[in-house]
Amino acid sequence: MTSYAFPAPAWPAAPIQGDARLFPIRRIFCVGRNYEAHAREMGVEVDREAPFYFTKSALAFQPSGTTAPYPPGTANYHYEMELVVAIGRPAFRVDAASALEAVFGYACGLDMTRRDLQLAARAVQRPWDLGKDVEQSAVLSDIVPVATCGHPSAGALELRVNGVTRQSSDLGLLIWPVAPLIAHLSRFYHLAPGDLIYTGTPEGVGAVVAGDRIEGSIAGLGTIALTIGDPE
Questions:
Q1: Domains in the chain, start-ordered, CATH in brackets?
Q2: Residue stretches of the chain with pLDDT short of 50
Q3: What 3-state class would DSSP assign to 183?
């Protein structure tokens, strides 16, 4: 029997719409600059030769509808509303034509970001870990199985802060849609059930403070919500 030096942490898992079972989260991949208008507002050019990625720990998972404290070390905490892909079958070196066979379902996601730390790291060409891999920053709605929602390639994506619309776009504007993303990422990783891909955010990102209520939606995938709590 395996013995640990201290109690092992509980494995993070997300609800599945219409299913009593949970989706165990293995890894979280995030796509950068996947909407042209967002790249412009961040002051950078879109690289159309290949997508690029950063990662978050699976322990950054935060379920929709909860409250997460304003994180330490930042004075500029941003929301980013995104389509999330949940992988349900192994995928390694797959082509775009067959890539969607690996998808279990889709969800709404919030990639919460310490923007000041991200931009400071970017300015000196350092990794974005402190800005992006933030505790309780990978917010996720219930995962909607493919059998229910199909493979969304277009549809409204919106985010509101305290009832005011801040992001409004369409999935059809993704520079790298889901199938090419999976095909590209599978050239570098053995994608497996439990992996999540946050596909990038459109323009309109901005800061939130303690007490703010974030609400978002994606057509056909339902809603997501997060309340920003007081700093710890």
A1: 23-229 (3.90.850.10)
A2: none
A3: helix
